[in-house]
Automatic annotation (TrEMBL):
It comes from Streptomyces fagopyri. Residues 1-23 are annotated as: Disordered. The lineage of its organism: Bacteria, Bacillati, Actinomycetota, Actinomycetes, Kitasatosporales. GO terms for cellular component: plasma membrane. The chain crosses the membrane at residues 39-59, 66-84, 96-113, 120-140, 152-171, 183-201. The keyword Repeat does not apply. PANTHER family: PROTEIN HDED (PTHR34989:SF1). Pfam families: DUF308 (PF03729). Keywords: Membrane, Transmembrane, Transmembrane helix. This is HdeD family acid-resistance protein.
Length: 220
């Protein structure tokens, strides 16, 4: 899942309640940092997880080929979200886990799309490993990041990712239908948790903006 900026929400004359302040157009890294630190970007990542989960649950009778394509596209899209979100970390040491996680999602997505006729076991292995590693890296980032708002929510999302990975890897699925239901259920759960993270981050941004405005209005 996406972990927002590594410290308390920024404030200042250019700060907006829906995300970080505008940055100079000439610096791509700063533009990516502004985008990745916005609560709407986290919301987009949540929707990108939730929608495939709903689709998989609504059409459980589709073939393994269709399931592999859906999962592959999901992994590629989430990889892009993770890549941009990584630039919202201020320190290089905090940015590296996010970039590694983005690379993992993209590689897994390519594997799913390159051979969509692979076996059920192979697809389960790819998704299970991605969720397990993603949850572990998210937990590490949440614990290592200083002044992270709503750390408990982020850790809960990380724990859910770890459990999802363990369940997919540990429970054998004998049919594409069983795998579809399992993956769809976990995608929906992960998407709902990330929705909670997005709205919690929006609340933190608004509180920071309100505190900054109160500080300006207070007499010296």
């Amino acid at each position: 899942m996406t972990v927002p900026r590594g410290s308390a929400p920024p404030t200042g004359p250019g700060h907006r309640p829906d995300g970080p302040a505008p940055t100079p157009a000439g610096d791509p890294a700063e533009l990516l940092a502004a985008l990745g630190g916005s609560w709407t970007w986290i919301l987009g990542s949540a929707v990108a997880t939730l929608v495939p989960g709903v689709l998989v649950l609504v059409w459980p009778n589709e073939s393994l080929h269709v399931l592999a394509v859906l999962i592959g596209l999901y992994l590629l899209v989430i990889g892009v979200f993770r890549f941009v979100a990584a630039f919202s970390r201020r320190e290089q040491g905090e940015r590296l886990p996010g970039l590694l996680l983005a690379l993992l999602f993209v590689l897994a997505g390519v594997l799913c799309l390159r051979n969509p006729m692979q076996t059920i076991a192979a697809l389960s292995l790819i998704v299970g490993v991605v969720w397990l590693v993603s949850g572990m890296l998210t937990a590490y980032t949440a614990l290592a990041t200083r002044d992270l708002p709503h750390r408990g929510v982020v850790l809960a999302a990380a724990a859910l990712g770890i459990v999802a990975g363990v369940v997919v890897l540990a429970l054998p699925t004998e049919s594409a239908r069983a795998l579809t239901r399992l993956l769809g259920l976990w995608l929906v759960l992960l998407g709902l948790v990330e929705l909670g993270v997005a709205f919690a981050w929006r609340a933190a941004l608004r509180r920071a903006a309100a505190a900054h405005q109160g500080g300006i209005a207070a007499p010296l």
